[in-house]
# Entry
Amino acid sequence: MVRRTGCETDWVDGRDVWFHDATAAVSDDCEPEWMDSEDPLFILYTSGSTGKPKGVLHTTGGYLLQAAMSMKYVFDYRDGETYWCTADVGWVTGHTYIVYGPLAIGARTLMFEGVPTYPAGDRFWQVIAKHDVNLFFTAPTAIRALHGLGDELVTRHDRSSLRIIGSVGEPINPEAWEWYHRVVGDGRCPIVDTWWQTETGGVMITPLPGAHALKPGFASFPFFGVEPALLDEQGAEIEGWCRIPGNQTILASPRFAPSTAIINA
# Structure
């Protein structure tokens, strides 16, 4: 158990130990274990937003290569910079972009304990100013919530250290994107709007800062080695023009009828 907050603890003798006692005699050196590239690295469960959570196994070599490459090129990491991903390490974003990706390229990665609105709504911006954060990666839900609190909570803090800001976890609406770019990034920081999944382990679609034109709400281009494809329900690739069947209840609404969803594959 970690002595962190000073609160009373439900202690069970014979089961619980203090972390500082258990680690006092442990060496700082840790000899690495040599692994095969296809050896399992970890199993992480999907979020369950589209069905029952599924356990996803990522292997050592492929996952670490993707984590390192995407960390290096999506965020254009430079030696000595401070990078902060606000995710929880229990989710794949935290796994890949707090722990494995940054550490694989020797980056300085910031780990945050708490929520963006406690003890006040400027907590994120306070941390950025305190630690001179250069690269900042957070979720659209947080961006929208902080947008609703107003600009002053942001602008009262120095954010001149920021160079690149990013979005992860869900689509970001254009209004939130514009505010993020204009207020948080002072209109000068590129936004890397990323798309990926627990199953992929790392970024699949993203703009590259300085290389791609940015468009609010669009993740834009596939990352290196990624070839996007549309598949039908049988798993066959769809080529050319296709019609995507929507929810008939929704499409029957006067708001949408007689519109049709058509995309160019």
Q: What stands out?
A: The chain has two domains: 60-228, 234-265. The first strand starts at residue 40 and ends at 45. Residues 234-265 form one domain. The chain is about 25% helix and 15% strand.
